[in-house]
Amino acid sequence: MAKKSGGGLLLLLVIVAGVLGYGYFRSQQGSSAEPPAPPGSEAGGGVGRYVALGDSYTSAPRTGAQAGTPAGCQRSDNNYPHLVAAALNPAEFADVSCGGATTAHLSSAQQTKDGTNPPQLDAVNEATTLVTVGIGGNDVGFVALAGQCATGDPAAGPCKARLTAGGKDELAAKVNATAAKISSVLTKIHDKAPNARVVVVGYPTILPDGNGCWPSLPIGAPDVAYLRGSLTKMNAMLAEQAKKHQAGFADTAAMTKGHDLCAASGTRWVEGLIPSAAAIALHPNAAGARAMADAVRKVL
């Protein structure tokens, strides 16, 4: 295989750097689970209040027209919360997701390049009957690794070597540390909306099985496997926290398997470094948003 030129690799790294503020990647299974339905938790058919919380995998930048404020959240009117709301038809709907959000931004304001997003939990109240929440990837920091793992050698694994040096898996440790933050978020949601069904939304399949698709994704096979395994752990943690906190879990990884960023254009539901459909790099396109909405509706 011809070696990629240094200029081409540099261009890909620049593109990666341009999306670091939005979200991240993740992967596989969690097995969907239906949320308990407390009395008075109806949200559909013209009744109830649905609130969507989350990061850029929820806000789905560029997959539709700008929805709500601030514009810096790049919240799409074609993201999975809007699609779920259109199918359910609740009396009230609030999508307060925002690209780049961490668990801290559910309880505190988030500054964006174009406006401030209030604490997302401010939208949750006693009248809320359904909450979906897709958060945690930015706490772990997966997306920042895209530039750090890029390599001109398809057999190299610089990130795995560095992050597992000395026998300690740093990504696994970060996923474990994020579990306590997710636990706190779910406790706060239940406290603010005791009659609501709560659904934790997992992350879709970004990386394929196998060695990846170097040089389109300039990450070597060892790091593709390492990141894929780490992303699987992330979704498993989210599913576990959902179960512990009487919440449902929407397994979006299963719904998007085979439609990862290495799939052919038209089959791809998650865009690569250079998007071929309306979306930002390493994030779901409109078809991916529909698949995520289907995963949420499946557990409702």
Helicity range: 25-40%
Count of DSSP H/I helices? 10
- Separation of the first and last Cα atoms: 48 Å
Structural class: alpha/beta
Largest sheet: 5 strands, parallel
Query: Any idea of the CATH class?
Result: Alpha Beta
* Low confidence ranges: 1-29
CATH topology: Rossmann fold
Q: What fraction strand?
A: 5-15%
Give the number of domains.
Answer: 1
Helix/strand layout:
Layout: H1 6-18, E1 49-54, H2 56-59, H3 80-88, E2 92-95, E3 110-112, E4 115-117, E5 130-134, H4 137-140, H5 145-149, H6 158-163, H7 170-192, E6 197-201, H8 221-244, E7 248-250, H9 252-256, H10 286-299
Parallel strand pairs: 1-2, 1-5, 5-6, 6-7
Antiparallel strand pairs: 3-4
Helix pairs in contact: 3-10, 7-8
Care to describe what's here?
- The protein has 300 residues and is α/β, with parallel strands linked by helices.
- It has one domain: Rossmann fold (3-Layer(aba) Sandwich).
- Helices cover 36% and strands 10% of the residues.
- It is built from 10 helices and 7 strands.
- It has helices at residues 6-18, 56-59, 80-88, 137-140, 145-149, 158-163, 170-192, 221-244, 252-256, 286-299; strands spanning 49-54, 92-95, 110-112, 115-117, 130-134, 197-201, 248-250.
- The strands form 2 sheets. Strands 2-1-5-6-7 form a 5-stranded parallel sheet, with helices on both faces. The protein has a two-stranded antiparallel sheet with strand order 3-4.
- A hairpin with a 2-residue loop joins strand 3 (110-112) and strand 4 (115-117).
- Helix 3 (80-88) packs across helix 10 (286-299) and helix 7 packs parallel to helix 8 (221-244).
- The longest helix is centred in the last third of the chain and has 24 residues, at 221-244.
- The radius of gyration is 18 Å and the shape is globular.
- The N and C termini lie far apart (48 Å).
- The model is unreliable at 1-29 (pLDDT under 50).
